[in-house]
């Protein structure tokens, strides 16, 4: 690490996380301007962006990317839940047609609970409803709040609250 | 007591559910109740308490009706039953010559109106879902 580079690092805003600084020390070539850094941290359903001063003018691009990432997360969640529904129906059908015994059915449910059980996400962020309404609009049919709830693993009261808030904003 | 508005709910140990159409929806984990089968009832649905909870305290929604013969009646209804095996749904002559589907539950049952009958005026202020808090 050259002294010139050290000078740059010391001039980084104090709000820059320590791991960003460490990464500079390890990986950035000596002739690179360190103001042009961009870090993206994947936190489940969203990205966290950290960018240097010279990158702020492209912040709109980050928003677009973030929307796509949230959408992909929700698509995957919906697919996962639909597969779980289908798997449970298949298992129930096998029981109804007496292809498996009741003991087999219950032991299968207990041993592979994650394969069949839809769990609601209590930490669901209200901002994601905008993305969900965009998805719903593109599907071109009406959905009940309980359908949205089980499709995206959202507690049903949150869906109802959001719809009520939205209606109040539209018709105060 | 009879609830006919959006959000009206019952909770009980045994219930009678009658609707024009009862459809299985999903196998879902619900707070404080456990793993439940969720059914959706559409087109003129009703649910009646046949056996009260013991102790008589709501487990999911603080605004639920809990007394014997309490009833909810709406257009669409969401029903969660604490069972793992699919319930047997039968046919019954309900109103006049109209046939309906019915199911009798013998485990914990939660039924909530998701869409009230269109001719019933909306309640002001509406019934708000008030979750039973889980003790840490």
Write a structural description.
The complex is a heterodimer of chains A (172) and B (136). Chain A is mainly alpha-helical and 172 residues long. Chain A has two domains: 3-59, no CATH class; 79-170, no CATH class. In chain A, 61% of the residues lie in helices and 8% in strands. Chain A has eight helices and three strands; from the N terminus they run ααββαααβααα. Chain A has helices at residues 3-10, 18-27, 59-96, 102-111, 113-116, 128-139, 145-152, 156-170, and strands at 38-43, 46-51, 118-119. A two-stranded antiparallel ribbon of chain A has the order 1-2. Chain B is mainly β and 136 residues long. Chain B has one domain. Chain B is 0% helix and 51% strand. Chain B has strands spanning 2-3, 9-12, 14-19, 21-30, 34-42, 45-51, 71-74, 76-81, 90-95, 98-105, 109-115. Chain B starts with a strand and ends in a 21-residue tail after the last strand. The model of chain B has no long low-confidence stretch (mean pLDDT 88). The chains are: A mainly alpha (172), B mainly beta (136). The interface between A and B is medium-sized, with 27 and 22 residues. Strand 3 (118-119) of chain A pairs parallel with strand 4 (21-30) of chain B, so a sheet runs across the interface.
Sequence-ordered SSE layout with sheet pairings:
The complex is a heterodimer of chains A (172) and B (136).
Chain A: H1 3-10, H2 18-27, E1 38-43, E2 46-51, H3 59-96, H4 102-111, H5 113-116, E3 118-119, H6 128-139, H7 145-152, H8 156-170
Antiparallel strand pairs in A: 1-2
Chain B: E1 2-3, E2 9-12, E3 14-19, E4 21-30, E5 34-42, E6 45-51, E7 71-74, E8 76-81, E9 90-95, E10 98-105, E11 109-115
Parallel strand pairs in B: 1-7
Antiparallel strand pairs in B: 2-11, 3-6, 3-10, 4-5, 5-8, 6-7, 8-11, 9-10
Throw out a few tags for this protein.
heterodimer; A: 172 residues; mainly alpha; 2 domains; two-stranded antiparallel ribbon; 3 strands; 61% helix; flat; disordered N terminus; B: 136 residues; mainly beta; six-stranded mixed beta sheet; five-stranded antiparallel beta sheet
């Amino acid at each position: 690490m050259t002294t010139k580079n050290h000078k740059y690092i010391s001039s980084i805003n104090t709000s820059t996380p320590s791991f960003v600084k460490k990464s500079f020390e390890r990986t950035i070539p000596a002739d690179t301007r360190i103001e042009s850094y961009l870090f993206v941290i994947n936190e489940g359903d969203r990205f966290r962006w950290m960018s240097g001063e010279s990158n702020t003018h492209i912040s709109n691009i980050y928003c677009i990317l973030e929307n796509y990432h949230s959408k992909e997360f929700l698509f995957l969640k919906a697919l996962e839940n639909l597969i779980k529904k289908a798997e449970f129906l298949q298992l129930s059908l096998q029981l109804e047609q007496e292809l498996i015994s009741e003991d087999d059915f219950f032991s299968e449910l207990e041993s592979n609970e994650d394969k069949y059980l839809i769990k609601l996400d209590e930490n669901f962020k209200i901002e994601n409803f905008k993305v969900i309404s965009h998805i719903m609009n593109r599907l071109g049919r009406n959905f009940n709040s309980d359908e949205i709830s089980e499709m995206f693993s959202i507690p049903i009261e949150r869906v109802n609250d959001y719809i009520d808030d939205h209606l109040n904003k539209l018709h105060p | 007591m009879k609830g006919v508005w959006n959000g009206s709910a019952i909770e009980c140990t045994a219930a009678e559910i009658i609707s024009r159409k009862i459809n299985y929806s999903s196998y879902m984990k619900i707070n404080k109740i456990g793993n439940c089968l969720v059914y959706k009832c559409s087109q003129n649905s009703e649910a009646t308490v046949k056996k009260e909870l013991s102790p008589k305290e709501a487990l999911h929604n603080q605004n639920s009706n809990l007394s014997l013969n309490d009833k909810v009646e709406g257009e669409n209804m969401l029903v969660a039953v604490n069972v793992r095996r699919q319930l047997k749904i039968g046919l019954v002559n309900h109103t006049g010559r109209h046939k309906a589907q019915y199911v009798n539950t013998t485990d914990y049952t939660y039924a909530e109106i998701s869409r009230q009958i269109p001719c019933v005026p909306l309640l002001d202020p509406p019934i708000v879902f008030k979750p039973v808090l889980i003790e840490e």
